[in-house]
Amino acid sequence: MPAPTSGRPPSPPTEPVPTALPARVTIRDVALRDGLQIISRLVVPTATKLAWVQAAWDAGLRELEVGSFVPPKLMPQLADTAEVLAHARTLPGLHATVLVPNLRGAERAIAGEAHAMLLPISASEAHSLANLRKPRSEVVAEIARIRAARDAACSRTALEVGISTAFGCTLQGRVEDAEVVRLVQQVLDAGAERVSLADTVGYADPAQVLRLGEQVLRVAGPDRFDTMHFHDTRGLGLANCMAALQLGITRLDACVGGIGGCPHAPGASGNVATEDLAYMLASMGVATGVDFDRLMALRGRLGAWLDGEPLHGSIWRAGLPKSMRTDAQAVAA
To answer: Is 8 contained in some domain?
Structure first.
């Protein structure tokens, strides 16, 4: 028996819900930087990182964040970024990104001929002071100096600015959409060629992703804003990725094994797992170029390389459903 109704049609949604998904999405694996940066119990040897890069390339990943040019005394885990970057540049078709906190780091990225450098700026002033030890206004000025130095060097290293804590902050709490949009305009005016939004502490939900993403698209356009970065702190990482896809986002950050997180989000479970994201995209017919069997083999090696560190993700435990082939064509086509 049908359920009784009020006699009125349901109210339409306030915003149209997009249904078309991108035909192809690039997964940028950031495990070698974002994943490793908060691991202090052990330092992964350079030789292991080089094998890691090779295995990621073998698995079809064509964008990697390979490290960060921060002072080694602050982050010994990433002291060998120059060597890892040099190796990544030898692999055909691999796009290597490095994180840079300031002009000095950018100069090293330019000298190492990184394909892109990513400079973070916090939408939260409190997080900026805690993370970079400077207010946002100084970071914006630094972006302008980095762009000038890059252009003076006639470098082809692209300049991306990541808006961290764009969806909320454990230190400040709520971050207003208007503040994020204002900051996006400022960094573009300062010389950023691409912007990305990051849910640094895992506060985002899909509705918020759609709402804020639409506003940033109106300012930056799809050519300069095509990337989002989500953490799975509260179990919404893949749901937020889905919302980003509905916006037309074509690059998503993830980490093999779901490692990483933010030191200002204690207890955080880390980033979206690359293998879970690759599965979700494949199950919906979105091409990624990823060889799933080789990606899972990399995940298995990661358990040995990071012995004792917690890894995350669902596909590693459950496996692919029988309705999906496990060969490369099923995921990469």
So the answer is: no
- Report yes or no on 42 lying in a domain: yes
pLDDT tens readout for residues 80-118: 999 999 999 999 999 999 999 999 999 999 999 999 999
Q: What range defines the domain where residue 277 resides?
A: 26-316+326-332
pLDDT digits (tens, 9 = 90+) for 40-84: 889 999 999 999 999 999 999 999 999 999 999 889 999 999 999
User: Are the C-beta atoms of residues 261 and 304 closer than 8 Å to each other?
Assistant: no
Q: For this structure, is 262 an active site residue?
A: yes
- Please compute Rg for the chain using Cα positions: 20
Asked, for residue 220, whether it belongs to a domain, the answer is: yes
| pLDDT score for 19 | 55
Closest CA relative to residue 49, chosen from 9, 87, 95, 92: 87
Ordered DSSP codes for 31-75: IIIIITTT--S----HHHHHHHHHHHHHTT--EEEEEE---TTT-
Catalytic entry in 169, 241, 255, 262: 262
Tell me the DSSP string of 85-102.
HHHHTTSTT-EEEEE-SS
Q: Where are the alpha helices (DSSP H) in the chain?
A: 46-58, 81-88, 103-111, 125-131, 136-152, 177-190, 206-220, 237-247, 274-283, 292-305, 315-318, 328-332
Assigned domain for 151 exists: yes
| Overall domain count for the chain | 1
Say which CATH number the domain at 262 has.
3.20.20.70
- 237-247 and 274-283 helices cross at what angle (nearest 10)? 50
